[in-house]
Amino acid sequence: MDFLPVFHNVKGKLCLVVGGGEIGKRKAGVLLEAGAKVRVVAPEIDPELAKQQGVESVVARFEAKYLEDVTLIIAATNDRSVNQNVSELAQARGIPVNVVDDPELCSFIMPAILDRSPLMVAFSSGGASPVLTRMMRGKLETIIPQNYSRLAAFAERFRELVKTRVTNPAKRRIFWENALDGVIAEKVLTGDEASAEVMLQKLLESEDNIEHGEVYLVGAGPGDPDLLTFRALRLMQKADVVVYDNLVSKPIVEMTRRDAERIFVGKKRNDHTLQQEEINELLVRLAKEGKRVVRLKGGDPFIFGRGGEEIETLAAEGIPFQVVPGITAASGVASYAGIPLTHRDHAQSCVFVTGHLKDGTMNLDWEQLARPKQTVVVYMGLHGLETLCSELIKHGMPDTTPIALVQQGTTPNQRVITGTLATLPSIAQREKPQAPTLIIIGGVVTLRDKLAWFHPHPAN
Q1: Is residue 362 situated within a structural domain?
Q2: Among this protein's residues, is 267 annotated catalytic?
C-alpha cells in the first residue's frame, strides 16, 4: 500500500489551488462540492472559475504567503518548477499537497470518486494509471445506482436505534447486512421508505430471537483467486471471522473483509496448529458467540477437505451452515498444467485418491488404481511418492506410464515435474519439490507438451 486511503473533512476550510486553467477549475470544483472555501492563485484564471461562489481569485504568481491559513493544497500548473516549489513549501509546513499527475511531489493522491453521498467510493492507483481508476469507477457506476445515497441516508437515520436495540456488535453487523441486502433496501431504493421503516421495526423485533451466528464452509479453490466463485467471494466479505488452512493462498485470504478476525488453523505433515476436533469446536464456539464464520478450505470442502467432519459437528450442535463448492485441485491444477484429466485416446475415467490416510499409511486399492485407460490423481502424495510408484508397478501398471508432479498449482509459483513411474522418484529427489503438490498419473500427461503453452498461465 503506497498511500493510506482516508477521507478528509474540508467543510468550511480554506483550500488552495495553484493554477487557473481547465485542470485547476476541475479540482476546485471537487473541493467546492466537498464544502471547502477555495483560493485560486494563477497569473491567469478561467473566467468561469473566477466567478464561482466560494472562490477567492488571486491573479498573481504563486508565493509562499498564499499558504497562510490553508488546510489543503492542489498544484495544477503546467510548470513543474512551480509545482515543485508549491510541494516543498507545503510539506515543510505539514500541509497536505497534491500535484496533479506527479506522484513524486504528492503527500496525498486525489482519487477518482463515485459520489453517492453519504456513501462515497474512491479509487486510486497511487498515480500509476489515472485512466484505469476512472475505468474502474465507470464499472461500479453501473452497479451502484444514484439512489444508493437514499439507502445510506436511511441507514444513518436508524443507526442509533439499532445500536441501542442490538448491543452485540457481530449481531448488529448481521442485522444491517440483512436490512441493506433484501426487501427493506428495495423499498428504500424505490422511494417507499414508510414500508421500509415498518419492515425494519419487525426485523428488530425478530433480532431478539436470534441465538447464534452461522458458519460458511467455503471452497477456496487450488490457489488462483480468479477461480473463486461469486458466492464464495460474497460470503467471504460478510464474515466476522475467517478460519483458514495452509492450502489457502495469501491473496485469497486478503480478499476477506479487512476488519474480520483471521484465525490460522493450517495443517502440515506432522505439524498441526490445531487438531481437527479442536477446529470443529472452534467453529461451534464462534458461531455461538453470534458471529458469522467463514471456514476457508483449499480446493473443495468435500474432496479430501474434511468438510464432512466439520458439518457433522455443526449439525449436532444446531449451528446453521452453508457449504460453497470450490474448484478442486485435481481440476484446477490439471488445467493450468495443460493436462486434461480425460481424453478419448488416453483415459475414459478419472480416480481421485489421497496419499495420506488417517493412520498415516498409504494403503490404497492398488489393483483398481493400476487399471488401464484411466487417470489417477493423488492428493497429498509427495511423502509417499516412491511407495506410490513401486506399488502401481507391482500391481501391473507399466513402469513407462507417464506421471506429473505439480507444485503450488495455479499460482505464480507453479512448477511441473514429469517423468514415468520408474523415473519420477529419483527426479523428485533431485528437484526437491515442496508441498502442496498434486500427482497425475496416466497417458493424459503426454498431452502436456502440446497443450500447456495455450494456457494463459503456462507452467514452466
Answers
A1: yes
A2: yes
Q: How many structural domains comprise the chain?
A: 4
User: What does the alpha-carbon distance between residue 49 and residue 57 come to, in Å, rounded to a whole number?
Assistant: 8
H or E stretch including 405? strand 402-407
Return the residue matching grid coordinates 507453479. 414
Domain that holds residue 425: 330-454
In a domain, 135, yes or no: no
CA 288 to chain CA centroid, Å, is 26
Residue 344 is assigned to a structural domain of this protein:
yes
* pLDDT tens per residue, range 342-397: 999 999 999 999 986 556 678 899 999 999 999 999 998 999 999 999 999 999 99
* Each residue's pLDDT tens digit, 138-158: 888 777 777 888 888 899 999
- On whether both 276 and 341 belong to a single domain, the answer is no
Catalytic residue among 245, 291, 297, 300: 245
Pair (183, 259) in one structural domain: no
pLDDT in tens, 391-416: 999 999 999 999 999 999 999 999 99
Query: Is the backbone of residue 99 left (phi > 0), alpha (psi -120 to 50) or beta?
Result: beta
241 belongs to a structural domain: yes
Beta bridge partners of 37: 14
> Has 171 been annotated as catalytic?
no
Give the model's pLDDT for residue 83: 96
- 411: domain CATH number is 3.30.950.10
Q: Is 125 left (phi over 0), alpha (psi -120 to 50) or beta?
A: alpha
Please tell me the distance from the alpha carbon of residue 137 to that of residue 95, in angstroms, as a whole number: 28
Q: How much of the chain, in percent, has pLDDT values that exceed 90?
A: 62
Give me the pLDDT at residue 169, please.
82
Distances 198 to 151, 250, 424 between C-alpha atoms, Å? 15, 43, 68
pTM over 0.70: no
